[in-house]
Design brief:
This protein is of the alpha+beta class. It contains four helices and five strands; from the N terminus they run βααββββαα. The model has no long low-confidence stretch (mean pLDDT about 90).
Amino acid sequence: MHFVVDFCSGGELFYLLQNKRIFSEQEAKFYFAEILLGLEYIHNQNVLYRDLKPENIFIDIDGHIKLADFGLSKVQKNNALNQTYCGSAEYMSPEMLNGEPYSFGIDYYSLGAVLFEMVTGLPPFYSTD
């Protein structure tokens, strides 16, 4: 078996964040909008992403984003709620952290956390403890 993907010469959003630290409002708005369009597309296919974070967002040669690593994604059936605890703590919604049922809203929470990091340089609620 072979797995083939497009080459994303722009690297990860994570790498770009490490180098720039903070994005301008225009840059953050551009990446936010592109990620939102990607989430809306996969949600329309009934796929819950569950692990949105800068390390899973790649940038192609034209500067556009590609979502990667669908290992924790799940196909939603009949608008069912989930309770599986998975993802990266810095970007997890309160529902998931509290073990409560969740659906597509958790991906939008993670998107907000990524936006927060793009404009401030750190994920929300960041602590060394």
